[in-house]
From TrEMBL:
Any single Pfam family the record assigns to this protein: SoxE
Region feature Disordered, mapped onto this chain: 33-62
Transmembrane region(s): 6-28
All copies of domain Sulfocyanin-like C-terminal, residue ranges: 70-212
Record-given protein name: Sulfocyanin
Organism: Sulfodiicoccus acidiphilus
Molecular function terms from GO: copper ion binding
Keyword Cell wall biogenesis/degradation included in the entry's annotation: no
Biased amino acid composition, Polar residues: 42-62
Keyword Transmembrane included in the entry's annotation: yes
Alphabetized UniProt keyword annotations: Membrane, Metal-binding, Transmembrane, Transmembrane helix
Record NCBIfam families: sulfo_cyanin (TIGR03094)
InterPro entries: Cu_oxidase_CS (IPR033138), Cupredoxin (IPR008972), SoxE (IPR010532), SoxE-like_C (IPR049544)
Amino acid sequence: MSKGLSSFVIIAIVVVVVLAAVGGALIVSHMHGSGTIPSPKPQNTTNSNTTAKNVSSPSSNLTISVPGTPLPYSKATNTVYITLIAEDISQPFNLNGTSDGKMVIYVPTGANLNITFVNEQSLPHNLNLVMNNTPIPNSADIGLNGKILFQLGTNMSSYQYSGIMNGQSVNGVYKDIQAGYYWLCCGIDTHAESGMWIVVVASSNVSAPYVIVN
């Protein structure tokens, strides 16, 4: 074979090898692609069949929807648990920070009221359940505004001037409240008239107790 022909053959072989290499690289590049491997689509962790449920107070054994803030309630004993505090705020004649009947407690007819009264004020205070005959206290003596049914921190002979002092508390139970409209108020002269009273409504339309602050 002549020298010129040999050179041509060698060049042709080199070209074929180069083309094969380039073609292989292109194939490999196409197989891998230019982007990243997409991550799996996140799973939806929300169950569309989940429904809300009512949660009862630890002190209660009844769970039910009510129009206001539920109060602790034992259905087994038909007992409503009420805590009222004469709070140490700028208005000394308050119960749980409210005055002038703005707090209204609704209870089932026939319920027992387990009431705890706490005095955080420097003034003495007591608590009375009154079947009132006036819309609001309008006398220094609450006894002139209705019938006193139950008392905490005092008695019928001294409710107009005696009560528990700062840091003291007292508890008692009023049983089988009948349907009607009542006050829970301080009996010391002028205290209820000055705003220290809330409303209690007992009704057969109430199946579980609750409180509303207007």
